[in-house]
């Protein structure tokens, strides 16, 4: 049962650019172009792509904020832009960059207002709110005006607000952007639980591949406004032969690159060396092998950047390898 | 698949049992909830609330003092006496004040369009117009309403009109339709801000400029201006035309006699046009990047 259906959708924006002093040039930008996909109820889908690929535009069309220029969209059987108000009861939206809470009100008042606007039954409201307070650790924040919350706190507050009315579909646009590791983990655990228990369909955009790894069985990659990959994360890594990077700090600078099977050094700087290895492989045996032969001080593993994974999908240029490592 | 609304999982059907609420009813309810929230927030600072409310009343009273001073040197203005002009002044200010109290916040829409925060309004289950109209609802704007009511009350006492049932009816219709006409201008102006975010100035010249014009008798203005207010942006239907009937004053420009009672029609036209403009505005909203 597809709960989200997107069929040949396009959205164009007219951009006016100043040319010279008075002249203005109009040009059309196709943010989304020939986009088609379906999401089944209960799925948790990662929606990724480089900046400007059309991720946010898609989400805004699915919520009814933006009207598509072409094509057909259905969410829970409704046309989002034409039946926006009715659909709003059945979806939850979290914008990482923008709060849906009332800025000047304490968190509690924002929820109370949402309860009344969404007409949430008392028992259900209490149950959902208590659950969010517990899992997102909102207790001490309820009396604080939204504008005084930190980014991570506000994000947790926003996620709770989006779930109080038991939405069937939850859209998250960069829900972990700018969060510290602890907040990120808390948000991820919560989302996984909501999806597992309530069967909420989740579509999330992110720049952090770890979000996808931890949450989504399915990932869609969008570039230049259309879906260029739709499948598992492993499959995505497989396609491009994508690589993770192990950064090791040795006790003393080594004159030669470390040689271990299954990885190769791509960069050296004093005692620090960067080793690339296939994303599908585990880092543990690699670390063990290095530690056995070299005096290891510190290490970290870097996930491939989404841009890099996508670049590789198109055949990948070798030169980007260094870029990804230094970036 | 989209057309099947039954026959799938139990969880799904639970939601299709949502009662369908009337659109207008839901919009008014959302308006009340949001305005009530802002009202409580503003009353938290009681002293500041009263100071601004009284302050607003006093500043707008000064316009009337200007008119009253003018009458120290003359007994009639364009053929109208001071109480008659006070009637125009009071009805113009009252209707504008009510419209401003109810939807004046729409003035600020351009800012919200520019920073993309209209997004958050559009994902809530209530008409955007109701939510944005109630946004930052400020009861202090009632200061203008109260002050104009005082002037209107004084003028009615002085005029000693012979209140027949039709006249009472026209008076009530004047207040309601005048508010609707001014409110429509606010809404249309806001709709325009979806296309040009600094359009509020144009709308202000129609609302506040128009209201100032309506404070004076139509006979003091050029005929073309008055005709524009009848056939263009129909502000003349706010108080000029009904006043011709209520005060029994001759028509200075010569419009059909039934126009004096046509305010509801003008209000309906204005509201429809504003509604369509608003719809077009919302559908062309382009949000911001990310």
What is the secondary structure topology, with strand pairs?
The complex is a heterodimer of chains A (327) and B (290).
Chain A: E1 2-18, E2 24-40, E3 44-48, H1 55-63, E4 70-75, H2 84-88, E5 91-95, H3 107-117, H4 122-135, H5 151-163, E6 169-173, H6 181-198, E7 201-205, H7 209-215, E8 218-223, E9 226-231, H8 233-240, E10 243-250, E11 264-269, E12 272-278, H9 284-293, E13 296-302, H10 306-313, H11 320-326
Parallel strand pairs in A: 3-7, 3-8, 5-6, 6-7
Antiparallel strand pairs in A: 1-2, 1-4, 8-9, 10-12, 10-13, 11-12
Helix pairs in contact in A: 8-10
Chain B: H1 10-16, H2 23-43, H3 46-70, E1 76-77, E2 80-81, H4 82-103, H5 109-114, H6 118-122, H7 128-134, H8 142-159, H9 165-192, H10 200-214, H11 223-232, H12 240-247, H13 263-283
Helix pairs in contact in B: 2-7, 3-8, 4-8, 4-9, 4-10, 9-10, 9-13
The percent range for strand residues of chain B is: under 5%
Q: Which strand order do you get reading across the main beta sheet of chain B?
A: 1-2
* Rg estimate of chain B, integer Å: 22 Å
Quaternary status: heterodimer
**Residue-averaged pLDDT of chain A, rounded?**
86
Category by helix and strand content of chain A: alpha/beta
Q: Briefly note the CATH topology name of the largest domain in chain A.
A: Rossmann fold
The gross shape of chain A turns out to be globular
Largest sheet of chain A: 6 strands, mixed
Largest interface: A-B, 42 and 36 residues
Helix content range of the residues of chain B, please?
Answer: 55-70%
The CATH architecture category of the largest domain in chain A equals: 3-Layer(aba) Sandwich
* Mean pLDDT across all amino acids of chain B: 87
């Amino acid at each position: 049962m597809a709960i989200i259906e997107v069929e040949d959708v396009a959205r164009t924006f007219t951009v006016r650019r100043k040319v010279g002093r008075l002249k203005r040039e109009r040009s059309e930008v196709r943010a989304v172009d020939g986009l088609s996909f379906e999401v089944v109820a209960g799925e948790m889908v990662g929606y990724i792509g480089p900046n400007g690929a059309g991720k946010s535009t898609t989400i805004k069309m699915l919520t009814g904020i933006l009207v598509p220029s072409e094509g057909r969209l259905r969410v829970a059987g409704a046309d989002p832009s034409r039946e926006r108000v009715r659909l709003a009861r059945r979806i939850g939206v979290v914008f990482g960059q923008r709060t849906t809470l009332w800025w000047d009100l304490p968190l509690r008042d924002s929820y109370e207002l949402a309860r009344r606007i969404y007409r949430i039954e008392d028992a259900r409201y209490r149950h959902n709110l208590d659950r969010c307070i517990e899992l997102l650790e909102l207790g001490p924040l309820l009396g604080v005006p939204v504008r005084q919350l930190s980014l991570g706190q506000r994000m947790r507050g926003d996620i709770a607000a989006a779930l109080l009315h038991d939405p069937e579909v939850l859209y998250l646009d960069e829900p972990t952007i700018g969060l510290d590791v602890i907040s990120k983990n808390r948000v991820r655990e919560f989302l996984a639980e909501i999806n597992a228990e309530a069967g909420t369909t989740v579509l999330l955009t992110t720049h952090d591949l770890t979000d996808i790894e931890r949450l989504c069985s399915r990932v869609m990659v969008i570039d230049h406004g259309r879906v260029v990959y739709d499948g598992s994360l492993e499959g995505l890594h497989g396609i491009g032969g994508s690589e993770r990077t192990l950064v090791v700090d040795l006790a003393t600078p080594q004159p030669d690159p470390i040689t271990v099977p299954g990885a190769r050094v791509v960069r050296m700087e004093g005692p620090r060396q960067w080793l690339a290895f296939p994303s599908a492989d585990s880092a543990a045996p690699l670390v063990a092998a290095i530690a056995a032969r070299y005096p290891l001080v510190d290490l970290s593993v870097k996930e491939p950047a989404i841009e890099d994974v996508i670049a590789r999908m198109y055949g990948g240029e070798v030169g980007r390898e260094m870029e990804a490592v230094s970036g | 698949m989209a057309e099947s609304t039954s026959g799938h999982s139990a969880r799904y059907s639970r939601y299709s049992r949502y009662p369908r609420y009337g659109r207008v009813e839901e919009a008014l309810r959302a308006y009340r909830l949001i305005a009530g929230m802002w009202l409580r927030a503003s009353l938290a600072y009681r002293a500041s609330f009263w100071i601004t409310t009284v302050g607003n009343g006093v500043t707008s009273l000064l316009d009337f003092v200007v008119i009253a001073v003018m009458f120290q040197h003359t007994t009639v203005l364009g053929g109208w006496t001071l109480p008659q002009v006070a009637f125009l002044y009071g009805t113009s200010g009252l209707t504008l004040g009510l419209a401003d109290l109810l939807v004046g916040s729409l003035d600020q829409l351009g800012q919200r369009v520019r920073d993309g925060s209209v997004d958050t309004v559009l994902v809530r289950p209530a008409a955007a117009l109701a939510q944005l109209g109630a946004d930052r609802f400020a009861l202090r704007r009632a200061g203008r309403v109260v002050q104009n009511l005082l002037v209107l009350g004084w003028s009615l006492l002085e005029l000693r009109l012979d209140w027949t049932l039709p006249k009472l009816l026209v008076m009530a219709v004047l207040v309601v339709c005048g508010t609707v006409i001014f409110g429509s201008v606010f809404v249309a102006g806001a709709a325009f801000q979806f296309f040009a975010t600094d359009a509020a100035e144009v709308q202000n010249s129609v609302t506040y400029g128009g209201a100032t014009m309506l404070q004076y008798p139509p006979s003091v203005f050029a005929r073309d201006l008055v005709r524009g207010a009848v056939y263009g942006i129909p502000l003349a239907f706010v108080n000029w035309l009904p006043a011709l009937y209520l005060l029994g004053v001759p028509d200075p420009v010569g419009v059909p006699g039934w126009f004096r009672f046509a305010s509801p029609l003008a209000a309906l036209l204005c509201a429809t046009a504003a509604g369509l403009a608003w719809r077009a505005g919302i559908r062309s909203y382009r949000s911001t990047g990310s």
